[in-house]
Automatic annotation (TrEMBL):
InterPro entries with a match to the protein in the record: P-loop_NTPase, Sulfotransferase_dom
Chain segments carrying region Disordered: 1-26
Keyword hit for Transferase: yes
Lineage, broadest ranks: Eukaryota, Viridiplantae, Streptophyta, Embryophyta, Tracheophyta
SUPFAM superfamilies reported in the protein's UniProt record: P-loop containing nucleoside triphosphate hydrolases
Protein name (Swiss-Prot/TrEMBL): Sulfotransferase
Limits of the Sulfotransferase domain: 75-334
Length: 356
């Protein structure tokens, strides 16, 4: 149970004290439409359906359809967007801590008693549970999150030109993170997904929320067209220079740190509060759950929090293959991702021995 915390004025964590039981009104009128969509079961127990060109997890699909039709963005909404397993949880914590930094002392902050996903709601699931009214009830400015690829975003987000912060990550680490997460979701009776199988599905773009490359590229291009509205971040760059990243985030969000705040170490406080070690160590993030019916405890969002764990899971050949795909897919865009597999894994492993 979350600790008793002061109620936020704005933005408000969605479920400050009590975990709500799912509303029994799933948007079920899409059932026929959904059952006719191509199905993929390789990441079971989560099945995905191909919707508007992307593989979308079936449980959130009704919510996404509902959201596309009914979500009304507000001009001052801030959207935290990502391909899953790219650092969403961290970015949620950072944006939330930056925006609420004058509302709460850092030793009595909502992030100490609530998971970042409770502070910044995941719209896809909120809609899928029929709880969209909770988003409507949030005071402005709202910070909201979805994993939707750019073309699938509700029109009002695009037409209002809301600010968007997108985080991406080396696809090799995204895959490893996804593999662990999906295996934790597998029921006790299910065998873990072999890494080679996960690798294949990932390369084919058959993954929850589709091809990582298409996802990233759409937001990258949008950030090039409208840099004042779309901030494009890399997980590895935040890790490498959190100070610069947090300053950049605050500037983009329209709440830059004052010289006094900088002098008083407020930026460092934000970084410390949102650090992997700090968040992972909190009781709510060890044993808490996002929803009573969600199969995983919150610790599944805090595994290793490093760049380069792919070295422990794939052979140099696999890494090279993924880097080659990344290079091909991003060719001509001006964006680079990963791309150190050949030299780094050769240096570390010494040869081409596959670990799997
Ligand atoms: P690993 O599985 O590689 O450890 P998402 O939030 O998009 O689901 O991404 C999850 C990944 O972000 C996990 O990566 C997780 O450990 C990492 N992560 C979560 N919180 C973090 C933090 N505060 N700092 C750095 N990494 C974090």
């Amino acid at each position: 149970m979350a600790a008793q915390l002061p109620l936020c004025n704005s933005p408000t964590p969605m479920e400050p004290q009590e975990k709500k039981v799912a509303d029994p009104r799933p948007p079920s009128n899409y059932a026929d439409l959904i059952s006719a969509l191509p199905l993929e079961e390789g990441w079971a127990p989560v099945r995905t359906r191909k919707f508007q060109g992307f593989w979308i997890p079936e449980p959130v699909l009704p919510g996404i359809m509902d959201m596309q039709q009914n979500f009304k963005a507000r001009p001052d909404d801030l959207f935290v967007l990502s391909y899953p397993k790219s650092g969403t949880t961290w970015l949620k914590a950072l944006t939330y801590a930056i925006m609420t930094r004058t509302q709460y002392p850092f030793d009595h902050h909502p992030l100490l008693g609530q998971n970042p996903h409770d502070c910044v709601p995941f719209m896809d699931r909120t809609y899928a549970k029929g709880q969209a009214s909770e988003l409507d009830a949030m005071p402005s400015p709202r910070i909201l999150n979805t994993h939707l690829p750019y073309p699938l975003l509700p029109d009002s987000i695009k037409s209002l030109c809301c600010k968007v912060i997108y985080v991406c990550r080396d696809p090799k680490d995204v895959l490893v993170s996804r593999w662990y997460f999906s295996n934790r979701m597998r029921l006790q009776s299910m065998e873990p997904i072999p890494f080679t199988k996960a690798f294949e599905m990932f390369c084919e773009g058959s993954c929850p929320y589709g091809s990582v490359w298409e996802h990233v590229l759409e937001y990258w291009e949008e950030s090039q067209r409208r840099p004042e509205k779309v901030l494009f971040l890399k997980y590895e760059e935040i890790l490498e220079d959190p100070l610069r990243s947090v300053l950049r985030l605050a500037e983009f969000m329209g709440c830059p740190f004052s010289p006094e705040e900088e002098k008083e170490g407020v930026v460092e406080e934000v970084i410390k509060l949102c650090s992997f070690d700090k968040l992972k160590s909190l009781e709510v993030n060890k044993t808490g759950k996002l929803h009573p019916d969600f199969p995983l405890t919150n610790d599944s969002y805090f595994r290793k929090g490093e760049a380069g764990d792919w070295r422990n899971h794939m052979s140099p050949e696999m890494a090279r293959k993924l880097d080659r795909i990344t290079e091909q897919k991003l060719e001509g865009s001006g964006l680079t991702l990963g791309g150190v597999a050949v030299e780094a894994s050769a240096a570390i492993n010494g040869d081409d021995q596959a670990l799997f």
